[in-house]
Amino acid sequence: MTTPDSRSTHPHLRDDASTDALPVSPALGASLDAARMPRRSTLVEPRVLFVCALAVLLGVAAAFIARILVKLIDLVTNLAFLGRWSFADVSPAQHHLGAWVVLVPVVGGLIVGLMARWGSRAIRGHGIPEAMEQVLLNESKIPPRITFLKPVSSAIAIGTGGPFGAEGPIIATGGALGSFLGQLLHVTGHERKVLLAAGAAGGMTAIFGSPVAAVILAVELLLFELRPRSLIPVALATVAAAGVRYAMVGATPVFAMPYVAEPGMGALGVYVALGAAIGLVSVAITHIVYGIEDAFEKLPIHWMWWPAIGGVAVGVVGYFAPLTLGVGYTNIEDIVAGHFAVGALAFLCAMKFISWSIALGSGTSGGTLAPLFTIGGALGALAGFGVMAIAPQLGVDPRIAGLVGMAAIFAGASRALLTSVVFAFETTQQPHGLLPLLGGCAAAYLVSALTMRNTIMTEKIARRGVRVPTEYAADYLEQVLVRDACTRDVVSLRTKDSLGDVRHWMQSGRAEAQHEGYPVVDDAGRVRGLVTRRMLLDPSEPGNRRIGELSLRPPMVVHEHHSLREAADHMVAENVGRLIVVGVDAPHPLVGILTRGDILSAHARRLKEAHEGGRHIRWRASSRAAQAKR
């Protein structure tokens, strides 16, 4: 028997030991060979090849679905505004309906309301929050009917003049397709999430030709992690989708910009300040949109009719400002190309915001990216014209200011910082805008994070009690080894100890003799198994019997070089509260015991580094030391 007195390297087990912490499956040959031990974690496993293959197929499928959605929007637009059956790319602004144009969005809203009422309520909104909710709460299981209902409802809403972009619906549709495939096949919940994100990212790539931004969007808003096993499949899906898009429509940027000069230091400072101001605007817009949604909630009529009511606002605004109708991608291109005059910019910005915010608050189906880009781009360009008139020596370009404004408003509203920067760069292919984008979006993100708890993407589901991750940090437990956190003071029994001697020791009343279980080691220090207090006190066992002759239970073992993450996962998988820690080298001697409490205590260092400030270099002391050396 090894006690604190006889073996100083193995003092007692913790007083909170219980039989719940011990394995319950007896083994015929109790030894370390029979012990269950966690596997070493790896970056990826061969299974990821299967997921990658599925992701590539999803990328291709999402690209074709995106083209179908675009053509469906064109068809509805032609039918609703021009009265012809055609898939030609047209703008609702080209209509000749006069005042009758007010009724077109109303009819579209009515159809969408009926589809939501009798099809699925999940088609309401811009799609990304709903996908986030399914990822966080429902193992990424989206109802299959969304794959069909979302693009059709969005095509009707946008084709009849809704001031939305096609990106939100196709992201939701691609995600639903990935989820559907993940429900058809035998995959894990994590793999289903990866497939959902791959479909969503593929859809976004097919619309905008922005594969890198699509990957980052998936990380920031859908995956909530940055791991090779999820990043690689999503990246391959976007590459496949981009290849299909290039084959069908070419590789030209969606929002082409003319050449602009590299900004100087003064202009760069203006762009950063502009980003901060746009960040405040993004916060205000988020509150206004959800305020309008709350107002619709108070209406004494069924929500099925709300999109039609929102359609009235869309139609009235569209009558006075036809450019607000439809997706408006050409508006964004004209803003960053500098084709709008100041008055036209201000009018478009105000009218687009009124139309979009009321329509979105009514619960119709459509995306937020394009409207936000239009509003933010117009505000940025207006600010650029103002600074250029007041301080021309700063060298501010209204086109770059518009580019910064459109990206910063999305960065502030959604807090998808890197997505906003890379997306604006990929869709314009303007290298001299990259640094202003980074500074402006970072400033907008900072202002938004300081002044708003939730975002335009998360506010809706946060109100339903869904907690959305906001930070992605490296797993601290993966950085700490078991040997640095385990309790090394362990009471163990020897295989050669007699049961009588052990019982006599247990009756001594000493604290270390009151535990509910003990590891058993042989003369070489190898762990042979576990023995419980009940087994030791079993009256049917004679006192002259050796501990090693008992039917020992196989130990739950972890090597001292395992990480705490591997050990914690092993505890959960085996439903135990402590693990025996052994050495790596033969004969694998007993090192200690790792408990749940030890794992929690390991976080003390992390909390200290995060919250406790200190000054480690003092200027006066350093100066005195330098003088003393002289």
UniProtKB/TrEMBL annotation:
GO CC, alphabetical: chloride channel complex
Region listing for Disordered, in residue ranges: 1-24, 611-630
Gene3D superfamilies from the UniProt entry: CBS-domain (3.10.580.10), Clc chloride channel (1.10.3080.10)
Membrane-topology annotation of the record: Multi-pass membrane protein
InterPro entries: CBS_dom, CBS_dom_sf, Cl-channel_core, ClC, ClC-type_chloride_channel
The keyword Ion transport appears for this protein: yes
Keyword Transmembrane: yes
SUPFAM superfamilies: CBS-domain pair (SSF54631), Clc chloride channel (SSF81340)
Main location class: membrane
Keyword annotations of the record: CBS domain, Chloride, Chloride channel, Ion channel, Ion transport, Membrane, Transmembrane, Transmembrane helix, Transport
Listed GO MF terms: chloride channel activity
TM regions (residue ranges): 48-70, 97-116, 194-219, 231-256, 268-292, 304-323, 335-358, 370-391, 403-425, 437-456
Pfam name, any one: CBS
Skewed-composition ranges (Basic residues): 616-630
Subcellular location: Membrane
Domain CBS: residue ranges: 486-546, 551-609
Name of the protein in question: Chloride channel protein
Organism in which the protein naturally occurs: Pseudoluteimonas lycopersici
